[in-house]
Design goal:
Rossmann fold; Tyrosyl-Transfer RNA Synthetase; Structural Genomics Hypothetical 15.5 Kd Protein In mrcA-pckA Intergenic Region, Chain A; 5-stranded parallel sheet; 5-stranded mixed sheet; 18 helices; 12 strands; 45% helix; RNA-binding
RNA sequence: GGGGAGGUACCCAAGUGGCCAAAGGGGGCAGACUGUAAAUCUGCUGGCGAACGCCUUCAGAGGUUCAAAUCCUCUCCUCCCCA
């Protein structure tokens, strides 16, 4: 290993994953000398992580693949305070119980990304409530607070952005807590590096500074870009809302669809960010996109890779089967068993056998494809609705017996890519 | 404490007694085109109803009027200027 570089950093740089870092050569040397531990914090503000957290998770994975030790910090303590970064206004405080419960669930989720059973560099998971929960104010102010300059704290982007509109002392203190976390991890687990989104840079440097002052230690930091799509929209939101990593909140099929819909302009960048494919392969996909964009080869690969990473082989298989069936256009030739298999994990609503003859408008409302009957009628008259791949015309259409496929399935479709399976239950 | 400007649908914003379910833009949904793309063009965008229509809605509560987003009273909230 060269003293000037390190494969982990080279890989990240080639993938354009580095925004800020402590001096690159020093960091490379640090990583080259020995097995190191690096952490990323996740605040349990919801009961699941989402696509916005994905980049951090993959970063930890990349680190572990380079034989270093990833530490996942669940912010059970800081989550009670609220990070002001990137926020226009004060956060609503979550209840202790909620945060505790969320923290528990996050622990289970991250095991998809890092390996907790990998010998010497097995991943480690810690919850900062462990130390923050019992911090006493006076000692904290004397020992930790003393090392912070209000002038510096005020100058940080995350704080100065809020000075005009207002920020509570609680949120203002967030950076102290995050810095304290870093120092605590350094002491407890010999953690010498913190990573995070570029909005975390200020908090990370605060931690590095604190470690230097209190322990005369050297620590490093690195931030990744905050991902936005080329059209300016934030990453991680789909038409229907946040794309969660929890399969119960966002199905593998929806996850797959989210990625396959990536615009050409973003797909190569996202392959670099979110997949572990070799760069040469990604470059080749870039050429395919260039010359034959209609194949959407890069999108397909991206969707496959990420879905597999997040939901495993089973999740990917479900997503691909459902996608193939729904978008093939013709489901009428399939057997009950095939349909059963294809739609096992698709969004499904059960209908009763005697719902046959019900106006289709009502069915659309019931399964959620139409917000109201008026909307439903509008969709029907503009030709937006298809049943089993066949366009339905007329607002007065009814759900008829010949629309029912083997096994009681009816494939309802709104527009080009919104599907819902209705399943008639036998009496 | 004094003076002023405001709060309208998902967002911005027009509307100052009836023609207002409320202009325009954005966003969203759909159609055409296409590659489950982008751009563009078109339609729709409070609810119920097949429809005449009915119901709910213009910060909140009352009131005036045949009729109120529009006028009056009180309340709450936001912003600006002066002290």
């Amino acid at each position: 290993m060269s003293a000037r570089s390190h494969p982990f950093l080279e890989d990240l740089a080639a993938r354009e994953l580095i925004v800020d870092s402590t001096p690159r050569e020093e960091l490379a040397a640090h990583l080259g000398e020995a097995r190191r531990s690096a952490y990323i914090g996740f605040d349990p503000t919801a009961d699941s992580l989402h696509v916005g957290n994905l980049l951090g998770l993959t970063l930890l994975r990349r680190l572990q693949l380079r034989d270093h030790r990833p530490i996942v910090l669940v912010g059970g303590g800081t989550g009670l305070i609220g990070d002001p970064s990137g926020r226009a206004g004060e956060r609503a405080l979550n209840e202790l119980e909620t945060v505790r419960a969320n923290a528990e669930r996050l622990k289970r989720q991250v095991s998809r990304f890092v390996d907790f059973d990998r010998g010497a560099n097995a991943a480690l998971l810690v919850d900062n409530y462990e130390w923050l929960g019992s911090v006493s104010l006076i000692p904290f102010l004397r020992d930790v607070g003393k090392h912070f300059s209000i002038n510096v704290m005020l100058a940080k982007e995350s704080v100065s952005a809020r000075l005009a509109t207002g920020i509570s002392y609680t949120e203002f203190s967030y950076q102290l807590l995050q810095a304290y976390d870093f120092r605590e991890l350094a002491r407890r687990h010999d953690c010498t590096m913190q990573m995070g989104g570029s909005d975390q840079w200020g908090n990370i440097t605060a931690g590095i500074e604190l470690i230097r002052r209190m322990d005369a230690g050297a620590a490093h930091g690195l931030t990744h870009p905050l991902v936005a799509r080329s059209d300016g929209t934030k990453m991680g939101k789909s038409e229907t809302g946040t794309v969660w990593l929890d399969a119960d909140k966002t199905s593998p099929y929806e996850m797959y669809q989210f990625w396959i819909n990536t615009p050409d302009a973003d797909v190569i960048r996202f392959l670099k960010f979110y997949t572990f494919l070799p760069l040469a392969e990604i470059v080749a996909l870039g050429e395919t996109t260039e010359h034959a964009p209609e194949k959407r080869e890069a999108q397909r690969v991206l969707a496959r890779e990420v879905t597999q990473l997040v939901h495993g082989d089973d999740g990917l298989r479900d997503a691909e089967t459902i996608t193939a069936s729904l978008f093939a256009g013709d489901v009428t030739g399939l057997s009950a068993a095939q349909l059963e298999q294809a739609f096992a994990a698709a969004p499904t609503t059960a209908l009763a056998a005697d719902d046959l003859g019900t106006p289709l408008v009502d069915v659309l409302v019931r399964v959620g494809l139409a917000e109201s009957k008026r909307r439903g009628r509008e969709l029907l008259t503009t030709g937006a609705i298809q049943v089993n791949g066949r366009k339905v015309s007329g607002a007065d259409a009814v759900l008829s017996g010949d629309a029912v496929l083997p096994g009681g399935f009816v494939v309802l479709q709104r527009g080009k890519k919104t599907f819902h399976i209705a399943r008639l239950e036998k009496k």
